[in-house]
Prior knowledge:
The structure holds two protein chains of two kinds. Chain A contains nine helices and eight strands. Chain A is α/β, with parallel strands linked by helices. Chain A has a single domain, classed as Rossmann fold (3-Layer(aba) Sandwich), CATH 3.40.50. A seven-stranded parallel sheet of chain A has the order 4-3-5-2-6-7-8, with helices on both faces. In chain B, a hairpin with a 6-residue loop joins strand 3 (71-73) and strand 4.
Amino acid sequence: MSIEKSTKAARGTAQCENTNINLLKANDFVADIIKKEMAKSNTLLVNITSSAGSGKTTLMQKTAEKLKDKLNMAVMVGDLETERDAERIRETGIFALQIVTGGICHLEAQMIHQVLDQFDLPNIDLLFIENVGNLVCPASFDLGEDYRVTLMATTEGDDKPKKYPRMFLTSDMMLVSKADLLPYLPFSVEAVTKDAREVNHELEVLQISSLSEEGIDEWCDWLVQKVKQKQQT
Amino acid sequence: MHETSIVNSIMRTLEMEFEQEKLNKMKAIHLKVGILSNIEPRLLHNAYSAYHITNPGYHHVVLHIESTELKIQCEVCNHITDVKNYRFICDNCERPSKNVIQGEEMLIHKVEFDD
Ligand SMILES: Nc1nc2c(ncn2[C@@H]2O[C@H](COP(=O)(O)OP(=O)(O)OP(=O)(O)O)[C@@H](O)[C@H]2O)c(=O)[nH]1
Ligand SMILES: [Mg+2]
Ligand SMILES: [Zn+2]
């Protein structure tokens, strides 16, 4: 606890302003600008979050492979230090840009806005943001996305939804990733789904594997449908 | 780490909201943060102290943080439930609800200035 110095009574002249300002208002202001940019170009913006190593970049590669002939897509990748993930995604033949956060554990709207002019938005139907691998901080920062998708790998504990409730509460879709490993792991998709839906009963859940391609067609269909919806508005 | 960003954001937000002249007289900031906000008051206080090293201008401004517990209000029966173990389900009628009425806040709810 901080020590309160009550100079107020002595002076009797203190002025108080009761406010109700979101303390991330500065971030949300920029997130709104991003939303408007995306609306102008009808670009669907999807924010991909997960713990470190749950398979985000691999999923971006797989998605690019499957959809790049159908849709114009691009990726921005947030990472603490390296350029590696963007390079991996570029190898699939789509445009990807690395945002090196320099130690910051999440992406903020300002960082996205800063690189937006490097994307040819009118010619991009689907823009992914691969967030920094961490389920805590990225949950609080709105990036102006249309949908937030959280990966939950079978190699992680299935108690994540209750440990990081804000992320699951603010997500639209949970992808149970690395499903090819299910036979070897004490991971219950049923239990994780139940916990996640206790937090957020509207959460969509899909089981996927970038390796065996289980669920990848459903994932791509979901994206194509959301892109279509966006372009109709 | 994200506490540092949050402190920066609070200060940027206040700078958007109030004139510099007024900010020079600022003496206390009161925050209300819900347990769902991922903000740990102790860590935020530390980050706030660290902020003053690079921004000595606000070193006399006291930060107060109030934490709030999680409550939902059922859209169907209006019953208010204290959420335990992040089970977002109405105590009364057992229906799921996302209607969080407390516990999600990340608010600057009061700012004090010297006259
Ligand atoms: N068995 C299996 N392994 C996978 C799958 N997807 C990814 N992996 C492996 O998991 C590891 C991490 O994958 P990435 O795609 O780099 O994960 P990430 O979420 O991008 O990681 P960060 O960006 O560091 O947070 C790699 O060794 C991948 O080969 C999958 O579907 N099945
Ligand atoms: Mg990655
Ligand atoms: Zn009810």
